[in-house]
Design goal:
The chain is of the alpha/beta class and about 325 residues long. About 40% of the residues lie in helices and about 20% in strands. The chain folds into two domains: about 10-220, Spore Coat Polysaccharide Biosynthesis Protein SpsA, Chain A (Alpha-Beta Complex), CATH 3.90.550.10; about 220-315, no CATH class. It contains 13 helices and nine strands. Strands 1, 2, 3, 4, 5, 6, 7, 8 and 9 form a nine-stranded mixed β-sheet that branches. The protein starts with 11 loop residues before the first strand and ends in an 18-residue tail after the last helix. About 40% of the residues are buried.
Length: about 325
């Protein structure tokens, strides 16, 4: 059982899976050392590091640091192991190249205490480049209805920003691993946790999210789009209470993967699906949950998407994710 230096189980376990993160791990852990809320442990899951990541982390002298050996099966499996290896009532996420603001955990714990029905609380994120310079802000929807609506099209949380109720994670089945078709392990978990209670995002950046060409987004972009599309299809089918037709599923594939220029007729078919989703939620959540970029996207795909490229799936077979 994980315990802090007072002998009690810490309120929060920060799950930090890492594979060769020596460049930024010290900076990332330092952002946790200086948190204004201190009742937490950092669980570093070594998922096959061959560099000095673990040695650097252990040399920092963090009393809250605990290191375990990951299964070397990817981040989803590492996170599932991290959940199983912790006892804290709250789980937080951070990656080895990201930074938490000093007040991040304090603000999120206070928010959870004030909103007992909330199962996930995330935040906006400050985007930084590999040198730490700011390059923008990631803004995500605020309230439950807007988040559930946005989930039909894409992931509505910045993964390293979230604080989760442990019992809800367990009830939803935790992170899933072992399937090459599930790379978007966060989006997959949120879509299952959405059935269990409220979902919120604090409308200010509480983390700095690094754009890293060596990270999963940079190295596994096609796989992430593939699994993200399958999860979006599953979520939309649940919203509309019907299975999308094969042509409708292919439209999701085309638009989500951005791998073929779509026709005007295909764009109208996409808009028809979006409008059907909108009517299920009502207009106020729609305008908070579906951004103007999402409404503009089909027009962009008509004009700017490549005319020919690789498909998301071989033979256009879209996998089922239960």
């Amino acid at each position: 059982m994980n315990r802090n230096d007072t002998g009690s189980v810490p309120a929060v376990t920060v799950l930090l899976p890492v594979l060769n993160g020596e460049r930024w791990i010290a900076e990332s852990l330092e952002s946790l050392r200086v948190q204004t809320f201190q009742d937490f442990e950092v669980l570093l899951i070594d998922d096959g590091c061959t560099d000095n990541t673990v040695a650097i982390a252990q040399s920092m002298g963090l009393a809250s640091l605990r290191v375990i050996q990951g299964p070397r099966q990817g981040v989803g499996a590492a996170l599932a192991l991290g959940v199983d290896s912790s006892q804290s009532p709250y789980l937080a996420r951070q990656d080895a190249d990201d930074l938490s603001d000093p007040c991040r955990l304090e603000k999120q714990i206070k928010y959870m205490n004030a909103n007992p029905k909330c199962r996930i609380v995330g935040s906006w994120a400050r985007r930084i480049d590999e040198n730490g310079s700011p390059i923008g802000t990631i803004k995500v929807p605020k309230d439950t209805q807007s988040i559930r609506l946005a989930m039909n099209l894409n992931c509505p949380f910045v993964h390293p920003s979230v604080l989760l109720r442990r019992d809800a994670v367990d009830q939803a089945g935790s992170y899933r691993a072992g399937s090459a078709r599930i790379f978007a392990e966060d989006y997959d978990l949120w879509s299952r946790m959405a059935r269990l209670g409220e979902l919120h995002n604090i409308q200010e950046p509480l983390i700095s999210y690094r754009k890293n060409s060596a990270g999963l987004t940079g190295t596994k972009g096609q796989e992430l789009r593939r699994s993200g599309c399958a999860i979006a299809i599953r979520t939309t089918e649940a919203t509309l209470s019907r299975r999308l037709s094969d042509p409708e599923r292919q439209l999701f594939s085309l638009s989500y993967g951005r791998h073929r220029r779509i026709s005007v007729i295909e764009a109208f078919r996409l808009y028809r699906i979006m409008l059907r989703i909108l009517f299920k939620f009502g207009f106020p959540p729609a305008f908070r949950g579906i951004t103007w970029r999402a409404w503009l996207a089909p027009i962009v795909w008509i004009v700017r998407a490549p005319q020919q490229s690789t498909h998301l799936w071989e033979n256009d077979e879209i996998p089922e994710i239960s």
